[in-house]
Write a structure and sequence with these properties.
Structural class: alpha/beta
Shape: globular
CATH architecture of the largest domain: 3-Layer(aba) Sandwich
CATH topology of the largest domain: Rossmann fold
Mean pLDDT: 94
Order of helices and strands: EHEHEHEHEHEHEEHEHEHEHEHEHHH
CATH class of the largest domain: Alpha Beta
Number of strands: 13
Strand content: 15-25%
Low-confidence stretches: none
Number of domains: 2
Helix content: 40-55%
Largest sheet: 7 strands, parallel
């Protein structure tokens, strides 16, 4: 069976690394010989659990020439038929490292960029975009994880014939679960999952929750935010400043197995300013949670009519959407059932894996 090397620039337990874990585990089961190249981080433990070999490379920045050299040496020694790069840093360093390696097919998956995504430094944003586009000429295929990503790549002038749409997939175990039924006296739990950064837009979510409690002070509702990130202290300070919600908002940090947490949520909320796919939203929908999500291209594609889409910058609209679901149990059940069916039919792990393997086989042939 073929040898596949996967270069991953992020070693956290978030969207792209978990996507790679799904893929690597499935490839291993199908008897492919798999090697992961990634920085040190918690995802390495997950790879070890599925018996996938890992080589650690720091990848300190896209300009880390030393890491690029190590990646090239590892690939030369391993001798894969295909090397698959996931994410900006891995794509930049990996394509730079592998560009002159003969008889190796190169695949790059874009997990980040859409027309809605921007860096805080506009000059660096242009450098990164141009650099990625330049290095993409060394890729044989470029995978877009959503139509939103595909549109960005085409609009940015990437070679259209190289681009393949393969959406991310939700792990099969999620479809076997359902939200836990609670007594009427139990608190309503509004759940959000994602890195604590500016793109996830948690400040607006917290402000919306504050408005909700102002309007319905007697409502027994809690907001639970799961994730780690650079804004954690800032967000905790923001919550403590609003006395009315100080005891009602919790930051759970990083959770190893998140499936049980989803089951305890009453409503799932995502207010992101940009998503390339929206894995946390897809997971919540797969369990059957009613969802309020940002009206941005990737989530419009994912949610469609199986949830409520809102302007992520509009606090009133977010508040009203949450209250609409709280006040209408029948709507919650209807949207939850429709959401589960939509994800199972269109965005399952099996579909993603089958399409990726088909791509690999086509390249090898």
């Amino acid at each position: 069976m073929a040898k596949i090397a996967i270069v991953l620039g992020d070693a956290t337990i978030t969207g792209a690394p978990m996507h790679v874990l799904q893929l690597a585990s499935a490839l291993k089961q199908k008897k492919y010989e798999i090697l992961i190249i990634c920085p040190h981080g918690p995802i390495q433990k997950k790879f070890a659990e599925v018996n996938v070999l890992v080589k650690e490379v720091a990848m300190r920045s896209p300009y880390d020439r030393q890491s690029a050299g190590k990646i090239r040496d590892i690939l030369t020694e391993f001798g894969p038929e295909i090397v698959h790069f996931h994410g900006v840093r891995a794509g930049w360093l990996g394509l730079l490292a592998a560009r002159n390696l003969k008889n190796i097919k190169k695949v790059y998956t874009e997990h980040l960029w859409t027309k809605n995504y921007h860096l805080s430094n506009p000059a660096y944003e242009q450098v990164q975009k141009r650099g990625l586009k330049f290095l993409a000429r060394y890729a044989d295929k470029i995978i877009a994880v959503s139509v939103a990503v595909k549109d960005f790549l085409i609009d940015s002038g990437y070679e259209k014939q190289k681009i393949v749409l393969i959406p991310n997939g939700v792990e099969e175990e999620f479809f076997k679960l359902s939200p836990i039924k609670k007594p009427p006296t139990a608190p309503i739990i509004l759940g959000a999952v994602g890195s604590l950064n500016d793109i996830k837009n948690y400040r607006v979510l917290i402000k919306s929750f504050f408005l909700l409690k102002q309007e319905r002070p007697s409502l027994n509702i809690h907001l639970q935010i799961i994730g780690e990130g650079p804004l954690k202290k800032n967000l905790e300070g923001m919550v403590s400043h609003h006395r009315i919600i100080e005891e009602l908002v919790s930051f759970a940090g990083r959770v190893e197995d998140i499936k049980e947490r989803y089951q305890h949520f009453t409503i799932f909320i995502n207010c992101s300013l940009s998503e390339s796919f929206g894995l946390a939203v897809a997971e919540a929908m797969a369990i059957g949670l009613p969802t309020v999500a940002s009206r941005i291209p990737a989530l419009e594609e994912l949610v469609d009519d199986a949830g409520i889409l809102v302007d992520p910058k509009d606090k009133e609209a977010i508040k009203n959407a949450i209250l609409k679901l709280i006040d209408n149990e029948e709507l919650r059940l209807t949207l939850g059932a429709k959401a589960k069916k939509r994800i199972e039919e269109n965005f399952s792990e099996k579909v993603m894996i089958d399409k990726t393997i088909e791509l690999y086989q086509g390249l090898i042939k």
